[in-house]
C-alpha cells in the first residue's frame, strides 16, 4: 500500500463510523429531513475533533495528577474547563 493510502486509512481510524453519525443525525432531525453524504462527513469530522479536544484536556489533567486512566469525572472537568458546562452538567455524578 502506498503512503497516501496508509495515511487515508489512519485518518479514517480517528473518525467515528459514518453510519453511527448518520443514524444520530436522523434521530435528531425531523423525520422527513434528508441528510447529504457531505453533511454526514462534515459532522463526522467535527464530532471526532470535539471528542479529541475534550479527551486531550482530560488526559492532561490525569497526567498532572500522575494517573494513567481517564474517568468520567475527568471528562466532566474537561468539558467545564473548555466552556461546555451545558454538556458537563447532565453527565455529572450526583
TrEMBL record:
Residues in Transcription factor CBF/NF-Y/archaeal histone domain copies: 16-79
Top-level taxon of the source organism: Eukaryota
Gene3D superfamilies: Histone, subunit A
Gene Ontology CC: one annotated term: CCAAT-binding factor complex
Keywords from the named record: Activator, DNA-binding, Transcription, Transcription regulation
InterPro entries: CBFA_NFYB_domain (IPR003958), Histone-fold (IPR009072), Transc_fact_NFYB/HAP3 (IPR027113), Transcrpt_fac_NFYB/HAP3_CS (IPR003956)
GO molecular function ontology, one term from the record: DNA-binding transcription activator activity, RNA polymerase II-specific
Pfam families associated with the record: CBFD_NFYB_HMF
Assigned protein family: Belongs to the NFYB/HAP3 subunit family.
The name this protein goes by in its record: Transcription factor CBF/NF-Y/archaeal histone domain-containing protein
Organism per entry: Arachis hypogaea
